[in-house]
## 1
Amino acid sequence: MDKHIKTADVASEKIVEWGEAHKIETCFERAEKLKPCPIGLSGACCKVCHMGPCRLVGKNAEEEARGVCGATLPTVAARNFVRMIAAGTAAHSDHARDMAFTLLAAATGEAKDFKITDVRKLYRVAGILDIEFEGRPVDDVAKDVALKFIEDFGRQKGEITYLKRAPKKTQERWKKWGVAPRGIDREICEAMHRTSVGVDHEPDHLLTHGLRTALADGWGGCMIATDITDILFGTPVPVKAEASFGIFKDDEVNLVVHGHEPALAEMIVDVAGEPEMIAYAQSKGAKGINLGGMCCTANEVLMRHGIPTAGGFTNQELGIMTGLVDVMTVDYQCIMPAIAELSKKFHTKVITTSEKAKMPGAMHIEYDDHRAREIAREIIKLACDNFPNRKKEGSHITDKFPVIGGFSHEYIEYMQGGRWRGSFRPLNDAIMAGRIRGVVGLAGCDNPRVQSTGIHKYLATELIKNDVLIVSTGCGSAACGTAGYLTPEMALENAGPGLREVCEAIGIPPILHLGACVDNSRILTILSAMAEEGGLSDEIGGMPGVGIAPEWMSEKAIAIGAYFSASGVPIIFGGESPVEASQEVTRIMTEVWNERFKGPFHFEPDPEKMLALALEYIDKARAALKLKKYEPGKFGAERVLMDMAARREIEKAAKPHIGL
Ligand code: NFS
């Protein structure tokens, strides 16, 4: 990878260069100018009180350095890390809370513009939550489901409800190590308490609470957000879409939905097709209304409606710099405040829509569940009104790539046997036989500190070449999509022979786009279903699977990594380690978490080493499960040390799967 090239995406690089020539600064130049503070970067800066900030550096810092209060480097690094988990969990979970209240308002008729789209999913969720659904009005069931979810946020004792969706053995580990979360808000609150000055100082004890909080994110906030979004707007099935800046149209109103909360974006999708709205656009000289997405709101509407995406995190400024965006709505999370100022150099109107998030320089139209359709129409009209203000300046129409998205857990099950016989058996069999070497979750942000999207692309191509099936989410999916990797052809051209055979037989791409970042919860349910299916590991830990966030930047990514670790998945993050300063904290996260949960958490900046480490974990897991050693090009081999009788025993012991 050429370090001088700022992004590995050709279209993005073109716009960055145009920006440089026109003295328009982006995150790429700012990342070059503003080097990270090495003390904060490695976790050695403590600023939890006003005696500091204390910088714990110097020779033998681990043994000798103390803050004014006496806090050691391991305490400080662990505290900083736990605070990142708490912030990430708060972000996902507050989004989930908003969705729960939207579901409640839809069920009670207060949010009259929303209805339950996927009744089947509602019933399945009600079943898991022990809510009676047969013979009851749909809205009554939805109300009970919403209220039950809302309880999970404020629960003071007991456990969050969805923990029971994990394999029994995984649950037992959580009990044994005391990490089963109580209420989501309670764990976040306690994380902030414990990490404030003078409370919890023992690194392992602190980090254990970090995992407890993270589990409240994965099996709470993220899973609740995914399920409610499916209930309200439909469980995704494969859908064709497009990606990159070429999705913008010269002769139509371009409206971009950016952020994470899907409710308003869904309403905009709904309203944009109204003849009245189209006529309004035409009255302003446009041929129609063209919707596009950015970041995770893009993933939400791509998965359910095939709305095209302009890309991930680092593409948001560049989208405006195309000069083709008439309105960009932003709700919350991963919104660069820079876009408000930048938009003034073009004709674009940036509109903040959440009551929680405003930006100096942006317009604010506050979203309200009770007036969703009206607000969506207002925003679309504004975009139409702005269309005639478009200048030629900055206009970049680039290529676009086809994308197949929409791989929900339910669809992956369905595609392996149909509606009545759907299961994870074929996938487990393919892994056992060695056609598929293992599974990698490729997720997380793209980042201007590295050659943006480049590490995603490198790992995606190398992993599938090595017969590793990839499930992707968030900006990982956007990076793959804007490179043209999310198509079945990718398997034909680039996948190893075993993986290619499986992809061809089922008709899927080798990289399955599972949705937004909160939809990493779909990976948890897939892994649980694979464990229940039998033949591989009987818990999430020990599966030939790894999670990688090669270009992470958000605290949300840290929360996700930590909940996968605690659930039993080895995790590899790119970039410098935020706990680098403490060997003790690094040891706990890699060695101790591996012993307790089978989920070590690594930071590894070198992409080649990331790949090697991921394959090493997969091969070790295969060996421990006594599956045949993976050999490139040789698939379909029998397993060693385990005959058919032994395999039948495992299958008999496997419980009927409890997922959806
Ligand atoms: Ni995830 Fe989605 Fe992207 Fe990273 Fe931000 S948009 S929630 S945090 S940058 S993947």
## 2
Amino acid sequence: MTANEMLHVNEMLHVVNPATGEPITTLPAASADDVAKAAERARQVCDAGVWSRLHVRERGAVLLRLADLMERDAEILARLDSEDAGKPITECRTGDVPGAIESIRWFAEAADKVFGRLAPSGPDGLGLMSREPVGVVAAILPWNYPLAMTAWKAGPALAAGNCLLVKPAEATPRSALHLAALAAEAGLPDGVLTILPGYGREAGAALARDPLVGALSFTGSTATGRRILKAAAESNFKRVSLEMGGKSPQVLMADALCYGDELIDNMIEAAFLTMGQNCTAGSRVLVHHSIAEEVLERFTAAAKELVIGDPADPRTRMGPLINHAAFERVAGAVEAARAGGARIHTGGLPHGLPARGAYYPPTVITGAPEGSDVLTRELFGPVVTVETFISEDEAVRRANATEYGLAASVWTRDLDAALRLARVIEAGVVSVNAYSEGDITTPFGGWKQSGFGGVEKSTNAFDQWTREKTVWIRTR
Ligand code: NAD
């Protein structure tokens, strides 16, 4: 479907630079009808077998060419995400884009190394178990890691032989569109990867209800995840995997300061990467009371040093929030905490920041009232609370006192304590002595209200995009 074919009837999608408020581009937004037509077309392409029945190594070769083309266009891709999402260009160059390329390349190489199984049956039969592509599948994406999230889904979905429909977030459609153009250049058959820029309430909702979509992988907020699950239940029971929000703890045991500046640098990255608009943001620091004063002082000082400014400037560490609604949400929660008796060590209401764009400074809070939004809600902004604990049990209780369970980090040189904590903290990923989501070989997915139904990264990611089949062969 070309942009021109959609022009007459569609609502428009306005892509705006969050740093300047200036329009970048206007695109026709995919309607529910466009989604239905794209799913129909994908079904035909699937049935024709031009991709699903292509030898797995040939599929891999196309995806490897795509990864090479992404390398060629790495700077273009970095700029698209930086401009659309207001992300610092250095983050896009060093994190998002290399991570996206790695995802496409790794899944291209992994596709022909995933084997089926043979059942331990008796002499009368042979049970062969294999994983087969689902067929038409879909991904609905957030705006905070536009290219990286597209690649996390497209890598395994395409390598497994599916036809994929992608709905990028309203604010950030351009890197996914560029990726699709590169995929065509790499030789991906027409109709195997379709990007549907559009609004969630229209195009996203249509994908979630579409009867031809067999699996849908969603990354975004918990509220939207709930709607998608309901739409799947009310339509064709498509398989749904949900990657949602978080309120992740950073647990610092009494000896954590032995890691010195490395600890503080990691805490800063955990808290303020992508201006805290990061699903695994370490937005709750839990620190042993004996080192709390020094940690707070050093962490606050480092937060004050972060360069806030134009995302296009390579020195910038903090750009604007995605929009003014996000600013209101973050500022409202911080002011409510202050009114409730919390102390703001740095940040809070912005002064002296760029006049345009929803800039909000890195903010460090102690003494937040029990149950306040800064302690319990995913604010999706550069706001960190610092709480103290006395015993390990108290640290665990506080760490788990959230409806989310996406990530956590633990800092200690005591191996026993690290392992004890890593095992009892309720989160899909616990990093020890680092802020990390692991690497491409390790599964990434949430517990509790952070998600379920499948993981990203690692060979386990193929499970989202394939169905298990048993073939029983009588051998008597
Ligand atoms: P969001 O839920 O508002 O939107 C996500 C996507 O869902 C968008 O493409 C949107 O258009 C679409 N959508 C909205 N309403 C819909 C509906 N009714 N039906 C179908 N689709 C609909 O989230 P966001 O603000 O774009 O992203 C921020 C959220 O994403 C945060 O909660 C963050 O934690 C989460 N996130 C999670 C991960 C993870 O891997 N767990 C990664 C990145 C972001």
